[in-house]
Amino acid sequence: MSGFTHFDAEGKARMVDVSDKAETERSATAKGRILMQPETVALIRAGGVKKGDVLSVARLAGIMGAKRTPDLIPLCHPLALSSVKVDLTLDEGNNAVEITATCKLVGRTGVEMEALTAVSIAALTVYDMCKAADRGMTITDIRLTHKSGGKSGTFEAA
Amino acid sequence: MSGFTHFDAEGKARMVDVSDKAETERSATAKGRILMQPETVALIRAGGVKKGDVLSVARLAGIMGAKRTPDLIPLCHPLALSSVKVDLTLDEGNNAVEITATCKLVGRTGVEMEALTAVSIAALTVYDMCKAADRGMTITDIRLTHKSGGKSGTFEAA
Amino acid sequence: MSGFTHFDAEGKARMVDVSDKAETERSATAKGRILMQPETVALIRAGGVKKGDVLSVARLAGIMGAKRTPDLIPLCHPLALSSVKVDLTLDEGNNAVEITATCKLVGRTGVEMEALTAVSIAALTVYDMCKAADRGMTITDIRLTHKSGGKSGTFEAA
Amino acid sequence: MSGFTHFDAEGKARMVDVSDKAETERSATAKGRILMQPETVALIRAGGVKKGDVLSVARLAGIMGAKRTPDLIPLCHPLALSSVKVDLTLDEGNNAVEITATCKLVGRTGVEMEALTAVSIAALTVYDMCKAADRGMTITDIRLTHKSGGKSGTFEAA
Amino acid sequence: MSGFTHFDAEGKARMVDVSDKAETERSATAKGRILMQPETVALIRAGGVKKGDVLSVARLAGIMGAKRTPDLIPLCHPLALSSVKVDLTLDEGNNAVEITATCKLVGRTGVEMEALTAVSIAALTVYDMCKAADRGMTITDIRLTHKSGGKSGTFEAA
Amino acid sequence: MSGFTHFDAEGKARMVDVSDKAETERSATAKGRILMQPETVALIRAGGVKKGDVLSVARLAGIMGAKRTPDLIPLCHPLALSSVKVDLTLDEGNNAVEITATCKLVGRTGVEMEALTAVSIAALTVYDMCKAADRGMTITDIRLTHKSGGKSGTFEAA
Questions:
Q1: Are C143 and C157 in contact (CB under 8 A)?
Q2: Which of A28, A92, C23, F31 is the right S-S partner for A112, CB 3.0 to 4.6 Å?
Q3: Do A128 and B147 touch (CB under 8 A)?
């Protein structure tokens, strides 16, 4: 296990210098979920069929959130993302909304933070849309599940 | 359990009209945690004492993230927050960083989303700072723990 | 007809000083439309029923765009909007999408620009979503239709 | 006429994946106009000569607006624009301000939305600067007039 | 001389809680200057009369910069500024551009940072506009000259 | 000494067209300083050792500020910075904080403005953190000290 790259030898925070890295195609996928009351799951399902669709609003917020990553995470590089996909599905067996986000870039640094930010903002948006009905929802299990491209090679979550 | 306020009768998304709500002092507290390898916890502790301090960077990112909430969450109102506090502590027994954020406002709508966003952005920043050492970290258990002010009264998580 | 308030006596641009204005409830409504091929109207209708809903995405973009008005229009005041509603409907007789936006504020200055910006961003989003099918669409007839609150009184478009 | 590329096969909104597109020089030009009272045209002309120059402020807002396109239009890619030009001229015969914007990029996707956004924000800024004198102005005829570069070839408005 | 209010008793950064402060009218004025070659001063003067006006562009950038203060300065409160004025004048005797910015607010916290940010962004914009002619310009002497409103009373620079 | 590139032949502001420039590695370094009371220097030193660290907060704000340059400086190109470093040190002999920022890019245009903006935002943040103790601080001597890469060659401040 190596140390932290976002600090220099004196412990000062910095944006890591990627000038010498090759431009390669990079991809990252993150996942997360929101746990809620069964009644809230039912309301989301009913809305998606008949009325307002919580999951569509959250999907869009997640895509837009990925683009704001360098504004939000202090040491992230500004990136010209070439693809963002966010998917939300109802998991009624577990009273949850499952979220998956995949980001791609042809560039010099990875896009894990963009994928994780997309999942987080989508989850927060689900919370916002449903909070009048259920304040006790929990956002949980946000993690990187896949990463490819770049010198550190491919990562797959266990 | 009521329905969703962010859709009108036809299911169209909207920013809820709060023009007629009273300006009252409102407060919200949210919590969350990041699970990591014991070696990562040790690296963070070592940095906070001697070198770069992951928790200070994440605290600042959380405070700034709270201010970006209306840019990120589609139907949130723009708000003039009167206070933001973000606290991160190492929980070595559980190999985790614990995050707590409290936001306040004198205004017409609650600040739950601001507190939850602060926790989420702080957690993502911890992930970013430590990911060179530990890609398998998980952000988990982000939830509202307290809310006061406004017509819906005080909420305390069970 | 008076002169321009956004310049001082020497012709220098400024944000108008509203410190002495009363906090009143203010509302503004703007409208606009996008003209397109009949086939494009048909594709939007088909999507709203079965697949991707162009109008829902544009509605959300319009709401979020209203919040960005002070970042975009140089001399607009930053405002804590209390309500934003954006509505898009298909007008098949005229091969058009009709857009209406209403913004509200309890504050010291009007919200015309917020309503006009919401309509503009929603229209641009319809263009973006449909441009692979129809590059010749035209955004047209964006105008203020109603304004109330504040010293200048109520305005209704002829 | 093809379908919409911003939805996948299930109708879910996405940012189109351009990872495999070639980096080519791309250019787009958009136009639009604002209709106003003859007295408002006269005030703008007088200001440009003697006092505050509405058209210079709007030109700058248009250039800055082009850069904000990915923040505003949900499914637009973040882009490193290589050129933005915005031109506004008084058309006294038609009681109008004419706006033209041209954006360029060496990259993987077109810049139509950037040019259209520049025109829209410039037009909104003209409205804002002149609204104290003329609330009835109309922003109209915003359309793409030229596009070149990329696989879909050159587009010229009829 | 008191300590720093932006840290709590444990030295953790925070946004100061202003919930209990009174809403009063607050004003702040800041000044600064940019030193340059005599030829650069002459070019700016020539442009302002005949061609592109550096000072008008910088004035607008300063006004817009004041509005971005809470996005830029980590612990600043988001504020609904009621007035921003930025003035730039050529000081040919000293080969300098002089900048003054005044911000106002009816609110719970002071607007010094908004005035100082407006001056800084205006100065950076002058540098950007003129740097092809003169890379050795220096931005200097940015300071608060006046502050009124709020509990700490009126401040005037010596 | 040449003229200004940010205006066209008619004096209209524009973002300079860099489409034809080569992608090269570019670097820029800027410096600046804040003058303060000796007691304020002592408070900053004490905080860095025991409590809240003003210089760490300002370093982070400077890094984040560099990324916001195209949002702030009207005619700057949006850039994918590959490196940002900001350093702040106490100069007790001169009662000052010294700031140095270096930005890098592999791209078509220089990064002077990013380095100068990083220094400016870091300086403003020091002011904000210390203003409760010392309102009379002055931000001074912000200038470019080094620039390399690109057609205009290397610049070193005298």
A1: yes
A2: A28
A3: no
For residue B107, what are its two tokens? 């205004």
Backbone angles phi, psi at A143, to 5 degrees: -155, 160
Show residues of chain D in contact with F16, CB under 8 Å: 83
Distance CA(E29)–CA(E99), nearest Å, equals: 10
CA-based nearest residue to C58, from A45, D127, B12:
B12
Using CA atoms, how far apart are residues F130 and E88, in angstroms rounded to an integer? 27
Q: Is the pLDDT score of D1 beyond 60? A: no
D121: its two tokens: 């924000």
Which of C 73-112 lie inside 8 A of E, CB atoms?
A: 74-75, 77-80, 107-108
Q: D87 Cβ partners below 8 Å, 6+ apart?
A: D59, D99, D100, D101, F12
Q: Tens digits of per-residue pLDDT, D11-68? A: 899 999 999 998 999 999 999 999 999 999 999 999 876 556 899 999 999 999 999 9
Q: Is F128 an annotated catalytic residue?
A: yes
Token output for D45: 């002309």
pLDDT, tens digit, 9 for 90 and up, residues F95-125: 999 999 999 999 999 999 999 999 999 999 9
Structure tokens at F1: 């000494």
User: Which residue among A14, A16, A78 places its CB closest to the CB of F67?
Assistant: A78
Q: Hey, are the CB atoms on F25 and A13 less than 8 Å from each other?
A: no
Phi, psi (degrees; rounded to nearest 5) at D50: -105, -40
A67 and F CB contact within 8 Å: no
DSSP state letter for A77: P
Distances in Å between the Cα of C113 and the Cα atoms of C16, C89, C106 are 14, 22, 15
CB neighbours of residue E82 within 10 Å: 26
* SS3 of F98-129: EEEEEEEEEECCCCHHHHHHHHHHHHHHHHHH
Q: How far apart are CA E134 and CA E49, in angstroms?
A: 20
Yes or no: say if C61 and C143 are a contact pair by the CB < 8 Å rule: no
Q: Are D147 and D132 in contact (CB under 8 A)?
A: no
Residues of F in contact with E141 (CB under 8 A): 138-140
ipTM, 2 dp: 0.96
Asked whether the beta carbons of residue A64 and residue D79 sit closer than 8 angstroms, the reply is no
For chain D, give the secondary structure using H, E and C.
CCCCCCECCCCCECECCCCCCCCEEEEEEEEEEEECCHHHHHHHHHHHHHCCCHHHHHHHHHHHHHHCHHHHCCCCCCCCCCEEEEEEEEEHHHCEEEEEEEEEEEECCCCHHHHHHHHHHHHHHHHHHHCCCCCCCEEEEEEEEEEECCCCCCEECC
* pLDDT at residue F1, rounded to an integer: 37
Contact E4 F136 (CB under 8 A): no
Q: Which residues of B are annotated as a binding site for substrate?
A: 75-77, 113-114
Rounded-to-integer distance, Cα C62 and Cα F2, Å = 44
**Chain D interface disruption, residue of F10, F16, F17, F19, most D CBs within 10 A:** F19
Find tokens 């926790």 and name the residue. Answer: B119
Backbone dihedral angles phi then psi of residue D64, each to the nearest 5 degrees: -65, -35
Beta strands in B17-95, from DSSP E residues, in sequence order: 24-35, 83-91
Given F72, F143, F147, which is nearest E121 (Cβ)? F72
pLDDT digits (tens, 9 = 90+) for E115-128: 999 999 999 999 99
pLDDT at F49: 61
Contacts of F41 (CB under 8 A, 6+ apart): F90, F92, F95, F96, F97
Q: Which residue is listed with tokens 């916002």?
A: A128
Q: Which residue has the tokens 């949006």?
A: F78
CA distance D9 to F73: 41
Residue C53: closest C-alpha in chain D: D11
DSSP letter (8 states) at residue C40:
H
H or E element that contains C143? strand C138-148
A15 marked as binding residue: no
